[in-house]
Amino acid sequence: MSTNSPNLGRRGLIAGGTGAILAGMLAAAPGANAAVPAQRQGNAKMPLAFGPDGKFRVVQFNDTQDGPRTDRRTVEFMGKVLDAEKPGFALINGDVINGSPKTAEEVRQSINNVVQPMESRGIKWAVTFGNHDEDSMANGTGMTEAKMLEFVRGYQHNVNVRPEKGVDGSSNAQLLIRSASGNKPAFGIWLLDSGRYAPENLGGQDFEGLMGYDWIRPSQIQWYREASEAAERQHGKIPSLMFFHIPLFEHHHMWFGSQFSSDDADHAAAVTKHSIVGVKNESVYTGAFNSGLFSALQERGDVRGVFVGHDHINTYSGNYFGIELGYGPGTGFGTYGLGGAKEHHLRGARVFELDERKEQVYTATRTVFAKELGIDMDPKSQPLDEPLPLP
Q1: CA 348 to CA 370: how far, in whole Å?
Q2: Which of 3, 9, 146, 352 has the greatest count of CB atoms below 10 A from its CB?
Q3: Could you give the 3-state DSSP secondary structure of residue 113?
């Protein structure tokens, strides 16, 4: 698809006999129904570790965004990616579920469907939250992000951490990856909670004419800066990747090579300047305000790349003044895609390669698409017969 494809606009959610077979396979996989351990296992500060060869792989899924009968192809695709890539860590970077669950049990089922591909394979994993994860609250489920976080932390292989007091958001975390050659970190992964929606008004003014989404808050930037400085004092500067759901203003600026326009004529020069690869098929739906996070990352100099989701049919990445900015393509088959016969053709995941023997450690990223792995591309919904068994 051309990088100059016209914007398709943001669409509403798609509602959402072979699913039973898939459910049975996953239920039978090691650890799929393991009891919740009495205590969390592993090193809380360094829950991840490079392999003996000094390498480590990360898989980013995004916008799995479905209900208690998740489209079976979402689960199938995630499993195929994990089997092929064998990552040391995988995450679902926001909009884990949609607003369709009617009960707390259905929220847990919706989450469980899309974390079982990692959990059943014994792969360390985490989630960040997006704007849709609390939407079921309108149905009376009572499942706040805090309650969802408590639920996912009960899984044996989950590495999410408890929220920091006084810091906005539930899914903020610094995860350190231990070196293969000793008890010290060689790389880091930052997770941030980019919030949900802008408030109805602020300072007596509404948000009409602005993007309607939330933004990274000052308390989070302060937490990142202080945690980054503390880690540097202890271990030296730790190169890292950062993940959260809603893109930054700079994701827009990089694509167009300008701040105050969205002129495709400027994009060609930006491709060369910022080494942009991938496609943009819808607008960059940022938060209402520019949080200033990018400036803080430039100041600290430890984050090598910032990757988001939210805009399901954008897949691009590039180097924006020394920091790689990019999207993970939308993973879930139960939410909007390209439309028409090609509805599911950009369902995918993003893979990151780390090698601690290399100076920069972070060496490459690439996308993997469901259509490349033999997943059925029929536009029609294919829900599971029943939710996967809860652990």
Answers
A1: 6
A2: 352
A3: helix
The gap between the terminal CA atoms of the chain, to the nearest Å, is 41
Q: What per-residue confidence (pLDDT) applies to 342?
A: 98
Report the amino acid identity of residue 44: A
CB-based contact 281:7 (threshold 8 Å): yes
Cα distance between residue 325 and residue 312, in whole Å: 16
Which residues constitute the domain of residue 57?
41-373
Judge contact between 196 and 131, C-beta under 8 A. Answer: yes
- For β-strands 89-93 and 124-128, DSSP reports them as parallel
Total length of the chain: 391
Dist. CA 79–CA 77, nearest whole Å: 5
Of the candidates 346, 228, 210, 345, the one whose C-alpha atom is nearest the C-alpha of residue 290 is 210
Burial class of residue 156 in the structure, from the number of CB atoms within 10 Å of its CB (0-12 exposed, 13-18 middle, 19+ buried): middle
Report which residue type is found at 63: D
Mean pLDDT of the chain, nearest integer: 90
When divided into structural domains, the chain yields a total of 1
pTM confidence score = 0.90
Q: Cα–Cα distance between 276 and 208 in angstroms, integer?
A: 32
Question: Quick check: is 208 in a domain?
Answer: yes
Give the CA-trace dihedral at 153, 158, 164, 167, to 10 degrees.
-100
Residue 177 lies in a domain: yes
C-alpha span between 102 and 113 (Å, rounded): 16
pLDDT tens digits for 315-326? 999 999 999 999
C-alpha 382/C-alpha 71 separation (Å) is 5
Q: Is residue 27 part of a domain?
A: no
Beta strand 240-243 with 323-327 is unpaired
* CATH number of the domain residue 46 falls in: 3.60.21.10
Kindly give, in sequence order, each residue whose CB lies less than 8 Å from that of residue 49, ignoring residues fewer than 6 positions away: 56, 88, 177, 178, 179, 180
Q: What are phi and psi of 349, to 5 degrees?
A: -145, 160
Say if 10 falls within a structural domain. no
- Of the pLDDT bands very low, low, confident and very high (cuts 50, 70, 90), residue 264 is confident
